[in-house]
C-alpha cells in the first residue's frame, strides 16, 4: 500500500524537484545574462513613479505624467528582461517538450481500450485504410470512417505490458506508430506526424512520416496525466510553472539577484 | 472525444517565439510554461507594476469626484485669493550679499544680475545670532527665536551645564524586555522636535496649497502636513551624532580627532587587509558599539583597492570615492541598523588609508523618519538612487583634520549638491501650483572651508602666494548662478521666485576663547589648583562662577534658582552683571592685531519676546569681522590664551555681529521694501496665497509688484 502510494507520487516528486532546480538555474541564468544594475534601476524607477502617483495625487498633470512614465518604465524593464528571456527560452522549451513526453500522458494499461486515429490526405484513401496489429493488441470494434474530417478511427485493447508497433496501410503504403502499455512513467508520443518540423518538435516524439505518405497523422488517445497537489489537480506544466516561479522568487531574494 | 491532431501551420523561429510570448501573455494555461519561469519573472514583475497602477488608477477614478470637491472646498480659501500661481524659494545657506554684488560687478553671475536688474536684490536682515538653525527656524515660522526656541545648534541643560542638540532629541524606547544579557526594545526610538512654532507651509497645506519642501534646516523630525518634505540640517547619522567620519589607516597613531571623527586601525590579514566601520550602540542593551567589518585588497600597480563589505564588492582608485554603499550593523536577534556610506581611498602604498563618510540613514530604508510622508525619502531614493541624508553631510571636520584634502572635500560637496539639484528640479516639476522651497547648503560649507583663499591675510594660507590661490568661492557662486538660470527657464510669469540666504559671510582669522576671558576677569572660576579646564566645564567651580559661554554666540549668567549651582541673584543684580559684562566686552580689542574683537553685546531681553525666552542666553556676543568663538570656547573649554590665530581650513564664518552678515534677497519681481528681513518671508508667502496671517507673526509681508502690491 505504502509502496503503491510512493509510486503514484513519483511524478509529483519529480515535477517538484525539477521545478525547484529549474527555478534556481533560471535565476542564475538571469543573473549572468542580464544587466543587473540596469534592471535594478528600471525597477526602482517604476516604484518611484508608482509612489509619485500616491504622493502627488492632487496634482492631476503630475499623476498623468507618472502613469505615462510607468508605462514607459514597464517597456524599459521588459526590454532589459528580454535578453535573458530569449537566451533561456530555447533550452527551457526543449527541456519541457522532452519532459512532457514523460509527464504529459499516462501510459495505457492492459485491458484498457484506446482509440487509434489516422488522418489521410485524400478522403478516397479512407476506405482502403486498414490497421495491422501485433498479437498482443486486438481491435475491439469496427473502424469508423469520418470523410468530413478525413479520419478513420479504430478501438483497440492491449493484453499485456510492452512497447508495440501498430501499422496502418493506406494508398499502397504502410506506416507505423508506437503504442506504450506500462504501469509507471514511460516516454510517450501520442502523435506521429508528416512534415512540419516545429509542430513535431512540440507534439510528437517519433520520426516524421514520409513526405509522400497518404497518412498525415496517427494519434493514440493516451489519458492526460493529472497530478494531485495542494488539494488541487494540476497539469504538470502548470504545476512546473508555478513551483519554478515561486522557487525562482525565493532564490533571487536569497542570492540578491534583480529579476 | 477530441484527439491531438495535425493542423497545418506556418513555421519559423520568430513566429514560434511570438506565439510563445503571446501564449504567455494571453493564455496563462499550458503555453506559459513553454516560456519557462524566466518569462514568468519578467511578466509578473512588470505586470505587477501595471496591475498596481491600474488598481490605483481605478481607485483614483472612482474617488475623483469626492476628492475634487474636497479639494475645491479646501482651496477656495487659497487659490481663490492667491496672487501667484506658484512661489519658488531657493535658499543658499550663507550666500553673502557683498560677494554676490562684487561678482556681479565683475560681470559674473549673469542670472542673478538679471534678477537684480529686472526684479529685486537687497541684503536680507538675519536673526540674532546669525546662525543657520536660528535663521532658518525664523524663516519657516515667521517669528523671533523667543517663539521658536532655537538659539544655537546647542542648548544647555540647566541641571548639569552640559549641552544638547537644540533642534531634536532622540530617546530610547521606554519599555524593554529583558532576556538574559539582552534588553529587547519594545517599540521604536522616539524622536522629539524641539523647535516650536508652525512652519508656514503647514498653514498653506491646510488651505489646500500644495507644498514641496526640500532640506530646509531644522525640519527634523519631519512633521505631518498636507505636502511633501525632506528634512535637512540637524538630521543625525546612524550613530545619532551630527556626523562622525571614520578614518581607517595602517599608520599607528594615538592621536584623536578633536571633533567629528574616529581613527580605526586597518589590520593586515595575509595578502589583504581588514577593518571596520563603527556604528550605533547595540540596541539590545549590551552597551557595545556595533561594527560593520570590511575587507580590502590592495592593487598597488593599478593604484586601486577592492573592498568587500556585506555582500557588496567594489573597486576604487586612489583619490576616488565609491558610490553610496549599503552597510548593515547586525545587533543579533534579528535587529539590524541599515545605513549608507561612501569610501574614499586616500593612500594605497606604502600605507593603506581609507576615509569613510559618516554612516547616513538609508533614505530607501530609513531607520528614523527623515521625510514626510515617510515614502517621500524612499521615492527620491528609488528615482535618483541613494543620497546623503545627514543634516551636515559635507564633512568639514574631515577637511579641518586634514583627513580629506581640498579636492576630496569639494568632490564630496558637489556630489551631494548635484543630488539635491536633481531632487529640487523634480520637486519643481511636481509642484506646478503651490510652494516649492529648497535650501542648498553647499554655499555655507564651501565658504566656511575656503574663505582662506579669498582673504589675502588669512593665517591658514599665509605661505600660499595670492595668485596661486584657487578660486573656489568664485566657482561656487558661478555654479549657484547657473542653477538659478535653470530655475528661471522653468518658471513662468505667474510664479514668484525668491532667492534667499539666512546670513552672509566674513573671514575667520582669529579665535577668541571668551571663557578664558571670563576666567581671567574673575567671572568664571576654576577648581582650586586648576589654570585651565577640559571640555564642557570639567574643572569649573560653579559655586563661584558668575558667567560662562557655551555654543557659538551665547553668554549665560549662572543664575540662582535657574542653573543648578547658580549664584547670581535674578533681577537687579543679574541686570547689573549683564551691564557690566556688556560694557567690558563691547569693543574689546585683540592686543595682537589691534582690531576690535567684539563689536556688539546684545541683551536678549531686548532681542526676544515669546514663551521660550527663558531658554535664551542672557547676552548674544557679536564678534567683530575676522573674529569668532574658538572651538574650545564653544565646547566649554577654558584655555590660558584668549586670542589665537585660526590655522584651520575652517576659515570663514558668520557667527559674528549679525549686523555684519545679512543674507541676500533676490527676486524676479520688484519688492518695495528697504530693509527686508528673513522673518518677513513666511508672512509674505502666506499673503500671496491669500491667507490670513496669524496675529503672533513677527514678520511683515512685503509688497510684491505684479501681485497687487504697490
Q: What does this molecule look like?
A:
- The complex is a heterodimer of chains A (259) and B (710).
- Chain A has 259 residues and is of the alpha+beta class.
- Chain A has 2 domains: 2-104 and 229-255, no CATH class; 113-220, Immunoglobulin-like (Sandwich).
- In chain A, 47% of the residues lie in helices and 24% in strands.
- In chain A, the strands form 3 sheets. In chain A, strands 3-4-1-8-7 form a 5-stranded antiparallel beta sheet. In chain A, strands 2-5-6 form a 3-stranded antiparallel beta sheet, with no helix packed on it. In chain A, strands 9-10 form a two-stranded antiparallel ribbon.
- The mean pLDDT of chain A is 88.
- Chain B is of the alpha+beta class.
- Chain B folds into 4 domains: 17-81, no CATH class; 85-150 and 197-234 and 391-505 and 661-710, Alkaline Phosphatase, subunit A, CATH 3.40.720; 241-378, no CATH class; 508-660, no CATH class.
- Helices cover 30% and strands 24% of the residues of chain B.
- In chain B, the strands form 9 sheets. An 8-stranded mixed beta sheet of chain B has the order 2-34-25-1-24-9-10-23, with helices on both faces.
- In chain B, helix 1 crosses helix 2 (32-81) and helix 7 packs parallel to helix 17 (681-688).
- The termini of chain B are far apart.
- Residues 1-34 of chain B have low confidence and may be disordered.
- The interface between A and B is large, with 74 and 57 residues.
Amino acid at each position: 500500500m505504502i509502496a503503491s502510494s510512493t509510486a503514484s507520487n513519483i511524478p509529483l516528486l519529480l515535477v517538484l524537484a525539477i521545478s525547484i532546480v529549474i527555478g534556481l538555474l533560471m535565476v542564475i541564468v538571469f543573473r549572468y545574462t542580464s544587466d543587473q544594475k540596469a534592471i535594478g534601476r528600471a525597477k526602482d524607477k517604476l516604484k518611484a513613479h508608482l509612489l509619485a502617483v500616491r504622493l502627488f495625487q492632487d496634482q492631476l498633470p503630475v499623476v498623468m505624467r507618472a502613469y505615462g512614465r510607468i508605462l514607459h518604465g514597464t517597456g524599459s524593464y521588459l526590454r532589459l528582461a528580454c535578453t535573458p528571456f530569449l537566451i533561456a527560452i530555447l533550452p527551457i522549451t526543449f527541456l519541457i517538450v522532452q519532459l512532457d513526453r514523460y509527464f504529459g500522458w499516462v501510459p495505457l494499461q492492459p485491458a484498457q481500450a484506446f482509440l487509434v486515429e489516422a488522418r489521410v490526405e485524400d478522403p478516397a484513401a479512407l476506405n482502403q485504410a486498414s490497421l495491422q496489429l501485433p498479437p498482443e493488441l486486438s481491435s475491439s470494434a469496427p473502424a469508423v470512417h469520418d470523410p468530413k474530417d478525413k479520419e478513420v478511427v479504430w478501438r483497440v485493447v492491449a493484453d499485456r505490458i510492452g512497447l508495440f508497433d501498430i501499422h496502418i496501410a493506406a494508398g499502397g503504403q504502410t506506416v507505423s506508430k508506437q503504442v506504450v502499455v506500462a504501469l509507471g512513467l514511460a516516454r510517450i508520443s501520442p502523435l506521429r506526424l508528416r512534415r512540419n518540423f516545429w509542430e513535431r518538435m512540440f507534439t510528437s516524439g517519433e520520426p516524421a512520416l514520409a513526405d509522400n505518405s497518404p497518412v498525415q497523422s496517427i494519434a493514440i488517445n493516451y489519458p492526460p496525466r493529472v497530478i494531485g497537489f495542494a488539494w488541487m489537480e494540476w497539469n504538470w506544466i502548470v504545476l512546473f510553472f508555478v513551483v519554478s516561479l515561486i522557487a525562482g522568487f525565493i532564490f533571487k531574494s536569497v542570492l540578491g539577484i534583480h529579476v | 472525444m477530441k484527439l491531438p491532431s495535425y493542423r497545418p501551420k506556418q513555421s519559423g523561429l520568430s513566429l514560434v517565439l511570438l506565439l510563445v510570448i503571446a501564449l504567455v501573455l494571453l493564455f496563462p494555461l499550458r503555453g506559459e510554461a513553454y516560456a519557462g519561469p524566466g518569462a514568468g519573472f519578467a511578466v509578473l514583475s512588470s505586470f505587477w507594476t501595471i496591475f498596481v497602477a491600474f488598481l490605483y488608477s481605478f481607485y483614483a477614478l472612482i474617488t475623483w469626484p469626492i476628492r475634487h470637491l474636497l479639494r475645491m472646498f479646501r482651496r477656495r480659501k487659497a487659490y481663490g485669493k492667491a496672487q501667484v500661481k506658484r512661489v519658488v524659494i531657493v535658499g543658499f545657506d550663507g550666500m553673502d550679499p557683498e560677494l554676490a554684488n562684487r561678482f556681479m560687478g565683475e560681470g559674473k553671475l549673469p542670472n542673478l544680475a538679471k534678477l537684480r536688474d529686472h526684479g529685486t536684490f537687497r541684503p536680507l536682515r538675519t536673526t540674532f545670532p546669525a546662525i543657520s538653525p536660528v535663521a532658518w527656524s525664523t524663516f519657516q515660522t515667521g517669528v523671533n527665536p523667543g517663539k521658536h526656541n532655537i538659539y544655537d545648534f546647542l542648548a544647555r541643560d540647566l541641571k548639569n551645564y552640559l549641552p544638547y542638540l537644540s533642534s531634536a532629541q532622540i530617546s530610547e524606547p521606554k519599555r524593554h524586555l529583558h532576556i538574559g544579557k539582552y534588553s529587547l526594545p519594545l517599540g521604536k526610538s522616539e524622536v522629539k522636535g524641539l523647535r516650536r512654532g508652525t512652519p508656514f507651509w503647514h498653514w498653506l497645506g491646510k488651505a489646500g496649497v500644495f507644498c514641496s519642501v526640500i532640506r530646509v534646516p531644522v525640519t527634523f523630525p519631519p512633521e505631518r502636513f498636507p505636502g511633501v518634505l525632506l528634512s535637512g540640517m540637524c538630521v543625525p547619522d546612524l550613530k545619532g551624532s551630527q556626523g562622525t567620519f571614520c578614518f581607517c589607516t595602517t599608520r599607528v597613531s594615538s592621536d584623536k580627532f578633536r571633533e567629528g571623527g574616529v581613527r580605526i586601525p586597518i589590520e593586515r590579514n595575509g595578502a589583504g587587509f581588514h577593518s571596520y566601520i563603527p556604528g550605533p550602540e547595540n540596541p539590545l542593551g549590551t552597551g557595545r558599539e556595533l561594527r560593520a567589518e570590511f575587507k580590502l585588497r590592495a592593487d598597488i600597480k593599478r593604484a586601486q583597492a577592492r573592498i568587500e563589505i556585506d555582500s557588496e564588492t567594489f573597486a576604487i582608485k586612489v583619490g576616488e570615492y565609491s558610490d553610496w554603499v549599503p552597510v548593515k550593523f547586525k545587533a543579533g536577534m534579528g535587529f539590524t541598523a541599515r545605513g549608507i556610506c561612501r569610501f574614499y581611498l586616500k593612500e594605497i602604498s606604502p600605507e593603506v588609508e581609507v576615509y569613510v563618510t559618516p554612516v547616513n540613514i538609508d533614505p530607501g530604508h530609513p531607520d528614523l523618519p527623515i521625510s514626510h510622508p515617510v515614502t517621500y525619502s524612499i521615492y527620491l531614493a528609488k528615482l535618483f538612487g541613494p543620497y546623503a541624508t545627514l543634516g551636515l553631510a559635507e564633512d568639514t571636520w574631515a577637511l579641518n583634520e586634514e583627513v580629506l584634502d581640498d579636492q576630496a572635500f569639494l568632490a564630496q560637496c558637489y556630489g551631494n549638491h548635484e543630488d539635491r539639484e536633481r531632487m529640487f528640479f523634480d520637486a519643481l516639476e511636481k509642484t506646478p501650483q503651490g510652494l516649492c522651497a529648497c535650501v542648498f547648503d553647499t554655499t555655507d560649507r564651501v565658504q566656511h572651508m575656503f574663505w582662506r583663499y579669498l582673504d589675502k591675510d588669512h593665517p591658514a594660507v599665509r605661505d600660499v602666494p595670492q595668485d596661486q590661490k584657487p578660486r573656489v568661492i568664485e566657482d561656487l557662486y558661478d555654479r549657484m548662478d547657473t542653477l538659478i538660470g535653470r530655475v528661471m527657464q522653468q518658471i513662468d510669469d505667474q510664479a514668484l521666485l525668491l532667492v534667499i540666504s539666512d546670513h552672509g559671510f566674513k573671514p575667520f582669522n582669529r579665535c577668541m576663547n571668551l571663557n578664558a576671558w571670563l576666567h581671567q576677569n574673575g567671572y568664571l572660576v576654576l577648581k582650586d589648583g586648576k589654570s585651565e579646564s577640559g571640555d564642557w566645564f570639567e574643572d569649573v567651580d560653579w559655586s563661584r562662577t558668575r558667567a560662562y559661554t557655551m555654543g557659538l554666540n551665547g553668554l549665560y549668567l549662572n543664575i540662582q534658582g535657574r542653573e543648578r549651582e547658580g549664584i547670581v541673584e535674578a533681577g537687579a543684580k543679574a541686570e547689573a552683571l549683564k551691564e557690566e559684562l556688556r560694557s567690558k566686552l563691547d569693543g574689546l580689542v585683540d592686543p595682537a592685531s589691534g582690531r576690535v574683537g567684539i563689536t556688539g553685546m546684545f541683551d536678549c531681553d531686548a532681542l526676544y519676546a515669546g514663551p521660550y525666552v527663558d531658554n535664551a542666553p542672557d547676552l548674544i556676543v557679536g564678534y567683530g569681522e575676522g573674529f569668532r568663538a574658538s572651538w574650545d570656547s564653544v565646547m566649554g573649554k577654558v584655555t590660558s590664551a584668549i586670542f589665537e590665530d585660526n590655522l584651520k581650513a575652517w576659515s570663514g564664518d558668520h557667527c559674528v555681529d549679525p549686523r555684519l552678515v545679512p543674507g541676500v534677497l533676490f527676486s524676479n519681481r520688484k519688492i518695495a521694501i528697504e530693509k527686508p528681513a528673513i522673518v518677513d518671508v513666511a508672512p509674505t508667502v502666506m499673503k500671496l496665497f491669500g491667507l490670513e496671517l496669524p496675529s503672533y507673526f513677527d514678520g511683515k509681508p512685503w509688497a510684491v509688484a505684479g501681485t497687487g502690491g504697490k
